[in-house]
Amino acid sequence: MKHLIDPTDITKEETDQIVALAEDIIAHRERYQGSMAHRKLATLFYEPSTRTRLSFTSAMMELGGNVLGFSDAKNSSVSKGETVQDTVRVVGCFADIIAMRHHIEGAPLVAAEVSRVPIINAGDGSHSHPTQTLTDLLTIKRELGHIDGITIGFCGDLRFGRTVHSLIKALSRYNNINVILIAPDELRLPDYIKQDVCDKMGVAYKETSDLDEVMPELDVLYMTRVQKERFLDEDEFDRVKDSFVLDARRMALAKEKMAVLHPLPRVNEILPEVDSDPRAAYFRQVENGKFVRMALICSLMDWKNDPAHQMPVQEAPVVNPNLHCSNSKCICNNEKVEPRFKRTENGVVRCWYCDSKVR
Ligand code: NCD
Q1: I need a labelling partner for 108 at 20 to 30 A (CA). Which of 82, 202, 212, 277 fits?
Q2: How far is the CA of 306 from the centre of ligand 1 (A)?
Q3: Mutate which of 50, 52, 155, 290 for ligand 1 pocket (most atoms within 8 A of beta carbon)
Q4: Three-state secondary structure call for residue 326
């Protein structure tokens, strides 16, 4: 069974295939209408969403399929205490494929372990967001014509921004990617991405808090919202909330051919005056999200029983009662899930579900 929980659950070739299929769908929309007739997608959203849920819904509708699910877990049996695994076992009796968003990190992974239909992670806490990554890759390809060789600046909340974590993971498999991390100290990229992704994959990166200085180097500027809902301390949020604001003055420092991406929603980090700049790609990016999700649904349904498209083989997890995941928002600290760990190549032990360092 093929699921998409982490961007590396699909190979680079499979990723490129999905992006290419999305481009074909854009060029020949009529050919794909009806290709998911009589199929059902369940959208299980335990956390707020506009774009992601509606783009999944409109993707499935455009493919001629149907959609069921919930957009607020309060209205489901979750409010009676049902576990993620039980909910997925039940929904798998009604739907052919499931897209799940959860505020608890690792929830979609645990769901996939018992599911009889493909699970798509539509965002888990501040951990991963692989379908936004596919959207971002398609957008970069369409805006610049290529992904290899780009210099991309990630700006804003690199600590809690799951779209950043997933996109860096995916980009690490392309050639000559140059990453510039633009964030205040409090919002820097987690170590596990720097060590287990950038260092391991040989991705060049530098950290700065000066957006103006790096603006002229960028082919892509990836702006992000400061993730208010993930802060444990409100004062800390107030201190960093308006760290970077993109305006026309800053756009004047950038290359003529460059693309500004943002997974949206934006709050203050891009002024409306930037919207009319031809390099502002964030609303085109939203539309790409629908096409790429159409391509993903078709691909996962196709690959479901194909031995050539299985989940990557992983090393056996470490199970040790003396180890504890330190992340209160991890599934292993919220549901009855066996704590499991993985040892990375540089010897660090991390949680199997959320990648946090262990105690
Ligand atoms: C992002 C998310 O939910 O992580 N939005 C999205 O899916 N397009 C970014 C965000 O909420 O800031």
Answers
A1: 202
A2: 31
A3: 52
A4: coil
> What whole-number distance in Å separates Cα of residue 108 and Cα of residue 123?
9
Q: Measured between alpha carbons, how far apart are the two ends of the chain, in Å?
A: 33
| Cα–Cα dist 329/312, whole Å | 26
- pLDDT, one tens digit for every residue, the chain (359 residues): 999 999 999 999 999 999 999 999 999 999 999 999 999 999 999 998 999 999 999 999 999 999 999 998 887 777 788 999 999 999 999 999 999 999 999 999 999 999 999 999 999 999 999 999 999 999 999 999 999 999 999 999 999 999 999 999 999 999 999 999 999 999 999 999 999 999 999 999 999 999 999 999 999 999 999 988 888 888 888 888 888 999 999 999 999 999 999 999 999 999 999 999 999 999 999 999 999 999 999 999 999 989 999 999 888 999 999 999 999 999 999 999 999 999 988 889 999 999 998 87
Q: Is the CB of 15 under 6 A from ligand 1?
A: no
Ligand 1 contact via 133 beta carbon (within 6 Å) = no
Quick one: residue 34, left, alpha or beta (phi over 0 = left, psi -120 to 50 = alpha)?
left
CA nearest ligand 1 atom 8, residue: 263
Could you tell me the pTM of the whole model?
0.96
Decide: 262 in ligand 1 pocket, CB within 6 A: no
- How far is residue 193's CA from residue 196's CA, in Å, rounded to a whole number? 5
Q: Which residues of 208-217 are buried (b: 16+ CB within 10 A; e: fewer)?
A: eeebeebbeb
